[in-house]
Amino acid sequence: MEPVYCDNKCGQKVSRKQMMQHKAIECAKRLVACRYCAKDFGFDTLQAHHAKCGRFPIACPNQCDSPKVVREELESHLKDNCPALMVSCPFKEAGCRFKVRNQRRLTHKRKKK
Q1: 22, 14 contact by CB (below 8 A)
Q2: Coil vs helix vs strand at 80
Q3: For residues 103 and 8, what is the distance between their CA atoms, to the nearest angstrom?
Q4: Domains of the chain by range and CATH?
Q5: How buried is 27 (Cβ within 10 angstroms: 0-12 exposed, 13-18 middle, 19+ buried)?
Q6: What is the residue-level pLDDT of the chain in tens, covering all 113 positions?
């Protein structure tokens, strides 16, 4: 049996007998779901998608001890939730120049009372 080009346009010649297996397992152009956002991508483009996928987990740039943060939630994490973020004292307006990691802010605030 003479090989034919893959229907997915990957450029491979495959025997008709092996075509189903090739398209399901081996083909670089086969569709696969991103495990983070569940959208379908060509197998050969999945790594590039992961570099910009909003649901892809990434490490906090502040190196906090939180588990990885979903890329699209990173801004919120850094602004509101990151325990390693350096923040000004809530009494900055009253002249306090103290800066503290977000997780220790409450301790400093209690000392001011």
Answers
A1: yes
A2: helix
A3: 52
A4: 57-112 (3.30.40.10)
A5: buried
A6: 689 999 999 999 999 999 999 999 999 999 999 999 999 999 999 999 999 999 999 999 988 888 899 999 999 998 888 888 888 887 888 888 888 777 655 454 455 55
pTM flag (> 0.85): no
| Encoded tokens for 50 | 């992961």
Structure tokens at 89: 């004292």
Residue 76: in which H helix or E strand, if any? helix 74-76
Give the whole-angstrom CA distance, residue 113 versus residue 94: 13
**Cβ-Cβ contacts under 8 Å for 84 (sequence gap 6 or more):** 60, 62, 63, 64, 65, 101, 102, 103
* Rounded Cα distance, 53 and 99, in Å: 34
